[in-house]
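Researcher: Let's walk through a ligand-bound prediction step by step. First, I give you the protein sequence. Second, the SMILES string for 2-acetamido-2-deoxy-beta-D-glucopyranose. Third, you return the three-dimensional complex as structure tokens. Ready?
Model: Ready.
Researcher: Here are steps one and two:
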Amino acid sequence: MAATKISSSFTFSLYIFLSLLSLASAFSPADHYLINCGSRADETLDPDHRVFAGDHSRFASSTRSIRLENADSDRGSYSPIYHTARAFNQPLHYTFWTKDRATHHLVRLHFHPLRNECNNLFEAEFHVVANGFVLLRTFRISENDSFPVIKEFVIPVVSEKVEIRFIPSNKWKFGFVNAIEVISAPQDLIADVAQLVDSERNERIDGLLKNGFETVHRVNVGGFKVTPFNDSLWRTWVTDDEYLKSDDGSEKIHFGGQIKYKSGGASREVGPDNVYNTARVIKSLNGSVPNMNITWTFQVEKGYRYMVRMHFCDIASAATNMLYFNVYVNGNLAYENLDLSGITYGLLASPFYADFVVNGENSGVLAVSVGPSNTSLPRAVDAILNGVEIWKMNNFMGSFDGEVCADSILRSWKRARIDVLLPLVGAVVLLITASMLMLRRRNVSVGWSRLPTDVSEANLKG
Ligand SMILES: *[C@@H]1O[C@H](CO)[C@@H](O)[C@H](O)[C@H]1NC(C)=O
Ligand SMILES: *[C@@H]1O[C@H](CO)[C@@H](O)[C@H](O)[C@H]1NC(C)=O
Ligand SMILES: *[C@@H]1O[C@H](CO)[C@@H](O)[C@H](O)[C@H]1NC(C)=O
Ligand SMILES: *[C@@H]1O[C@H](CO)[C@@H](O)[C@H](O)[C@H]1NC(C)=O
Ligand SMILES: *[C@@H]1O[C@H](CO)[C@@H](O)[C@H](O)[C@H]1NC(C)=O
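Model: Step three, the predicted complex:
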């Protein structure tokens, strides 16, 4: 069984107690840094009611960098955190001291071009490294991106700080950043175990807590877009329509009741109410189980491991023990006869998630499907999915962006500085050598100019 994390059984009444408890306590992370880079204001309120602090005391002050402000008159159309940025043509680093250690931290980097006289931000090109992970390499924004570009990572933090280093790709390049978030993740956001699924295997693997993850897709299936305002970890969940292979035969549903979060299942920090209270389902028609699947496909970069998190919550069945279905990842059976009532100890509308790891994805497309199993019942719901997240996992070099390690990126900048210095030193040495040579030449040339005369004289004499 995938990461259900149900280790012991509780009584029904305890579950109700726990779910009431979880309703009362909102998540408040120990580390919660929201930085509006390049802003002189102490506080900036974004449209999701979050307070971002200015960055003047945040970054290493020894580093030369400049603050950029948008010269655009039409500033009202996007969040105030994108009105300023910090730009640098030398490495810039931000340090965030952590209270919450030995846990994962969420790192979000925001990029939004702004109009200014100094730089064309589309020409920026830089690397980003954090706590030994390569987050971005030779990163550029493109006119074709939709803005803001938000890069989100969940990285294990074992030291007392999160250090985010921005490094221009080379000494002629520069970089920029508009906003940074560093938030300690709730303990249950990343599980140590998952189910590895490919054409030959379907086996439990562990040790995932050592990994870092980059969010590549986060989808609220069958529902509306969820913005950070309605998510206790300030995430964005997009609608599933553009990922759906075909919507023939599937149905979107919405549930108006209470989502029953409980210990052992998904918490509100794993998935908010607005994700679990909508879904896409397959229903029996005319008293027979339809012979179909619902499939979503996701573009991914080749050559990485991915973690696929599928969110389930039976908000569709009329009673318990009526919903049984199969789950496929890349066409491989990931979970057969999934019985949500069994997992949630007979509670409907109680959320749960399952993590699947896909090794070295080589097609560039990742497919997730749900469909009836051979125990699906006629006159019932025969498959359901409420949400999907696709996370890229770091490679063996600790990188999310190519086969390069953080150290070699940091060293490459030092080398670039030496490259600037070397020609300089070389030029000085050359100058000295040349002038010495010229001095000697003057002395020697006296002899030489004489020598031929002497020789000719000698010759003449001879
Ligand atoms: C943007 O998209 C257009 C059309 O697809 C393409 O021709 C152009 O090269 C793209 N620009 C960049 C910077 O990728
Ligand atoms: C938050 O969720 C509620 C309930 O689903 C919805 O009515 C509201 O529009 C959402 N707000 C935002 C800012 O998305
Ligand atoms: C359901 O059954 C009715 C009558 O047997 C038939 O007319 C209809 O086409 C069936 N619908 C589907 C979707 O199979
Ligand atoms: C559902 O998907 C699985 C895996 O790709 C496949 O084996 C099965 O035949 C599909 N079922 C239907 C009805 O297409
Ligand atoms: C139902 O699933 C079981 C277990 O995988 C399998 O042995 C059996 O052949 C399946 N039955 C049908 C009708 O596909």
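Researcher: And what stands out?
Model: The chain has two domains: 32-185, 187-393. The domain at 187-393 is CATH 2.60.120.430 (Jelly Rolls).
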